[in-house]
Design goal:
alpha/beta; Rossmann fold; Tumour Suppressor Smad4; 2 domains; eight-stranded mixed sheet; six-stranded antiparallel sheet; 20 strands; 38% strand; globular
Length: 295
């Protein structure tokens, strides 16, 4: 049975004034389906115009009022939208204006066909996990954030390695000297973690991936652990470079010697809505050029 989405929110690529015509076309299409269309306030501010003819709402208002959110842009835009809407039980669709994305999997050139199928009930919903990172200093949590792709502990502005201690579920793992550590969800396994030599994890897995960045000891290898595990990283008091924690490449949290970085699975989830013929492995083939001729 087709599910009718009557209240739909639109989120456009941040600070991009070139997507106005795309938003107008998309809004008109959705209105032809008898849907009420809302525009993200940040997108409306960026465009500086009301030509989309849709009421602008904050992210919280969108989460409270909308039944579906359509993100127009790239994977970074969807990462931002997903983090801001995790406390709401709302489904996200990603439409990519450029190349096919891992998360924004509907290309612009045939979005109407795919949305027609979705509005006819031909879709499936995929729940994906997130991470929560907390910075603890002298026993007090000084900052925290959530991440859809990854939490990265890394050196900052210095050509020297970090030294830090890692524990998992209060069990000592190692002391590592490296450029940092990537802690990724299965979704994030195809992001920075892949560049660091980590494995690709099916996004449906309940697992956390840990990938060292340029470790001094080459026997330091990527590690996959259970999603309910809790990771703690302590920055060494001695010989450390300046460090930073970055979530999804978009949020930066400052750390200093002696700080503890606590990472665990976030209680909420992200619900992605895909067309019925969505194939994760097809996306991998397209993005990673599997099977392409090398000459």
């Amino acid at each position: 049975m087709a599910q009718q989405f009557k209240k739909i929110g639109l989120i456009g690529k941040y600070a991009n004034t070139e997507i106005g015509e795309n938003l107008v076309e998309l809004a008109q299409y959705l209105k032809s389906k008898e849907a009420t269309v809302y525009l993200d306030q940040g997108t409306a501010d960026s465009l500086g115009t009301d030509f989309v003819q849709a009421e602008a709402l904050s992210r919280d208002q969108m989460g409270e009022q909308c039944e579906l959110i359509i993100v127009l842009g790239g994977d970074g835009t969807l990462l931002n939208a997903a983090r801001s809407l995790t406390k709401y039980d709302i489904k996200l669709i990603g439409i990519n204006l450029g190349h096919l994305g891992f998360l924004t999997d509907i290309p612009w050139d045939n979005y109407q066909q795919k949305l027609d199928e979705i509005f006819n009930g031909e879709y499936h919903v995929e729940d994906r996990m997130l991470l929560q990172a907390s910075i603890i200093r002298d026993g007090v949590t000084i900052s925290e954030s959530i991440a859809f792709n990854d939490v990265i502990v890394h050196k900052w502005e210095e050509a020297r390695m970090l030294e830090f201690e890692t524990t998992i579920d209060n069990k000592f793992v190692n002391v590592q000297r490296s450029d940092g550590l990537i802690i990724a969800t299965p979704t994030g396994s195809t992001a920075y973690a892949l560049s660091g030599g980590g494995p690709v994890l099916n996004p449906g897995l309940n697992a956390i991936l840990m990938v060292p960045i340029c470790p001094h000891t080459l026997t330091q290898r990527p590690l996959v652990i259970q999603s309910d595990s809790e990771i703690e990283i302590t920055i060494s008091e001695e010989g450390h470079a300046r460090a930073q924690v970055t979530c999804d490449g978009q949020i930066n949290l400052g750390v200093t010697a002696g700080d503890r970085i606590h990472v665990k699975k976030f209680d909420g989830k992200v619900s992605l809505l895909h067309p019925h013929d969505y194939n994760y492995y097809e996306i991998l083939r397209a993005k990673l050029h599997w099977g392409a001729r090398l000459y």
